[in-house]
Design a protein that fits this description.
- This protein is α/β, with parallel strands linked by helices.
- It contains 21 helices and 21 strands.
- Strands 13-14-16-17-18-19-20-21 form an eight-stranded mixed beta barrel, surrounded by four helices. A five-stranded antiparallel beta sheet has the order 2-1-5-4-3.
- Helix 13 runs parallel beside helix 15.
């Protein structure tokens, strides 16, 4: 049978528990006994004193009825009492109603007080709240009591004294226990410390590299198990250290180098740049952010594996060409960072050196890359930001390079642009415009303008609702300036709902007037708004809320809206079309035009984009496109309207092509609702004729 094994900690714990249990038991017994002894001696002494005084007639019997006197004599609060004569009747009482009564008639009387003459002269009994004392006063010649005195006292003071004694006893017990525990812990500490010190000395030698060190084990307990574990760990430490060094090298490779190209990554490049800036170089340096042009198109057409291979080949060219001049790093995606230093003492010298570097970069990228069986050429746009003497800081430098790179993209790509203050001002203007746009959406600064749509030479058939922003400080801001920003920030969605709701309210207002009741109203819907999951529900909710006639509402979609999820788009259009809403395809021919989706989409109208109308008289291609759109709409059973008609010659040419409806400055500019309705009244009123029954309009509208 295996003997139970008690470890070092267990042995100390059992020892402490045993001593504390014995100490508590002993101290508790001592102090409880002390408390009881103090109480009994005090009661006995005081009662004996009172008994002697009564017996020696130093205290009259009627003093039993005096509460203050009895309280002072005993030292406890007197509650009441009485004296029984030899005939068993009450001769003295603190309660006058008890006088003369027999003992049996006294409340709380105990017959045993009188039955045994041999009982001690003093007897006391305790209850939870009081002390009852019985004094038997005997004569000098007989043991039979002459009088029996019964006294009742409140024991609150005795209980308080007992609690005080117990409290002191508890405090002393705890102090003793604390002392003994500390002594035990001290002894145990001394026993453990020697072994721990040996272990620490061995660990110090192991830390210095003496991996052959072993700790002597003297006891088979927890500390012994720990020492054995340290010995086992030491045996594996050398192998572990070697493995850790290999892992650290791998981690550094993963942390600071791009796994696809082998170039330093963004983290390594920024750390290198931070060190350069902190050294406050006297000569100029530059950060170039290089972004490949049309890389997404390559990925989409040839696949991501081809894109990865292109990045590897370009990275190798950059390494061979520029590694000796500065740090080349892959920032992520198709972006690379080039950090150049010591470019010259003047800004002009630095720019010339950077331009020379970028020129060689362009030449290198111009060489074709062989990917599978395809030959791929690419270009790059770069943004350059100069630094000198540690200025600007790292974050600002990155922002400047990024702004300059996007400026290069917007300027036609395949070029280098240096950051300048004009770019900074443009960025600030854009940020200010974005803040103002958010505020404008929140405060409702926008208004709707309406541009007339006519059929034939002069008959008004509807209008297009166009949003305008009368800025409180900058005046009327062009939609070409704030609509793209609203698209980027997502504010186009709440703007779109605002436009739709106000357009529906205008339709309701027009329905109340005979001259406008038949007008339709077209509302542009952005792709971002159309792709909202609750688009259909929101449109129907607005129609129900405004009580507008859905047959007079036409939603205009652009071809970019149809770029993805054509099935979902068709489902939404069909639901709304069942409610009577019409659909027009805006800017037709400028995007990814496809006869396939024209056949499937539940459209009502095609709009010839103004870019074709503008040069329809001078460009045969634009004229051919306009002719084709009109013929296509007729073959598909769709209405067609030309927008951007600005001259009578354009109108006549389109009319000859068979285009039945028009929109543009030749008929009316976009106008506020009051001016629009005034223009409409002028058109509907009797007008001067050119002899052929058509109404003449001056270019620019009717205002």
């Amino acid at each position: 049978m295996t003997r139970p094994r008690f470890g070092l900690i267990a042995r100390i714990a059992w020892l402490v528990l045993a001593i504390e249990a014995l100490a508590f038991g002993a101290l508790t017994a001592v102090y409880l006994d002390r408390s009881r002894t103090i109480m009994e001696r005090r009661i006995e002494a005081q009662l004996q004193r009172v008994g002697r005084m009564l017996q020696e007639e130093n205290l009259p019997l009627n003093a039993v009825a005096t509460p203050c006197l009895m309280s002072d004599l005993i030292g406890l609060e007197y509650q009441g009492g009485f004296v029984l004569g030899g005939n068993g009747r009450v001769i003295v009482a603190s309660d006058p109603f008890l006088l003369g009564k027999k003992a049996e008639e006294v409340p709380g009387f105990d017959p045993s007080w009188l039955n045994d003459a041999a009982r001690p002269p003093i007897e006391a009994s305790f209850t939870s709240e009081r002390l009852t004392a019985v004094l038997r006063l005997r004569g000098p010649q007989t043991p039979i009591p002459l009088y029996t005195v019964v006294l009742d006292f409140d024991t609150a003071e005795l209980r308080a004294a007992k609690r005080e004694v117990i409290a002191w006893g508890t405090a002393l017990s705890l102090a003793f226990l604390l002392f003994t525990s500390l002594a035990i812990v001290f002894v145990a500490h001394r026993l453990i410390t020697r072994r721990v010190q040996r272990t620490l000395r061995a660990l110090a030698r192991i830390e210095e590299g003496a991996l052959e060190t072993r700790i002597p084990i003297t006891y088979a307990d927890e500390l012994g198990d720990l020492q054995q574990g340290i010995n086992s760990m030491t045996e594996k430490l050398a192998a572990y250290i070697a493995e850790q060094k290999r892992a650290q090298a791998r981690i550094r490779q993963l942390a600071f180098y791009d796994q696809l190209t082998g170039l330093p990554n963004r983290i390594a490049a920024l750390e290198h740049l931070r060190e350069i800036l902190l050294s406050c170089p006297q000569e100029y340096g530059a950060l170039l952010l290089v972004d490949l042009d049309d890389f997404k198109t390559l990925n989409d057409t040839l696949g991501h594996e081809a894109g990865d291979e292109l990045l590897r080949q370009i990275a190798e060219r950059l390494r061979v060409e520029f590694e000796s001049q500065g740090l080349i790093a892959r920032a992520g995606g198709d972006e690379f960072l080039v950090i150049l230093s010591r470019l010259g003492a003047t800004e002009e010298q630095a720019k010339q050196r950077v331009e020379a570097v970028f020129s060689r970069l362009r030449e290198s990228l111009a060489l074709p890359c062989r990917i599978d069986h395809a030959s791929v050429r690419t270009t790059a746009s770069a943004g350059g930001a100069l630094f000198h003497d540690g200025d600007p800081g790292l974050e600002e430098l990155l922002k400047r390079a990024d702004v300059a790179m996007y400026h290069a993209k917007a300027s036609g790509r395949d070029r280098l642009c240096f950051f300048d203050e004009e770019m900074a001002r443009a960025v600030r203007r854009r940020a200010e415009l974005e803040r103002d746009l958010v505020k404008a959406v929140e405060t409702g600064q926008f208004v709707l303008y309406y541009q007339l749509q006519v059929r034939g030479p002069s008959w008004p058939v509807g209008a297009e609702a166009l949003i305008r922003w009368p800025h409180p400080e900058r005046g009327l801001i062009s939609p070409a300036e704030f609509i793209p920003l609203a698209e980027e920030t997502g504010l186009i969605v709440p703007l779109g709902w605002w436009i739709l709701e106000n357009a529906c309210r205008q339709l309701v207002a027009w329905e109340r007037k005979a001259e406008t009741a038949g007008l339709t109203l077209s509302v542009n819907v952005s792709a971002r708004q159309f792709y909202q999951p609750d688009f259909v529900e929101r449109v129907l909710e607005i129609l129900e809320k405004t009580e507008a006639d859905p047959r007079r509402l036409k939603l205009e979609l652009t071809e970019s809206t149809l770029a993805s999820d054509l099935g979902g788009i068709i489902d939404k259009m069909r639901v709304l079309k069942q409610r009577g809403i019409g659909f027009a395809l805006d800017d037709f021919g400028t995007g990814y035009s496809s006869l396939g989706y024209l056949k499937r989409l539940p459209l009502d109208e095609l709009k010839i984009d103004q870019s074709f109308v503008r040069d329809v008289l001078t460009d045969p291609n634009d004229a051919a496109i306009a002719r084709t759109i009109v013929a296509l709409a007729e073959s598909l059973g769709l209405q067609v309207i030309a927008e951007g008609v600005e001259t009578p010659e354009q109108w006549k040419f389109l009319a000859e092509l068979g285009c039945p409806a028009y929109q543009g400055y030749y008929f009316a500019r976009p106008l506020p609702i009051e001016q629009f309705e005034e223009t409409l009244r002028q058109m509907l009123a009797p007008a001067s004729s050119d002899g052929q029954g058509t109404v003449k309009f001056e270019a620019g509208g009717g205002t």
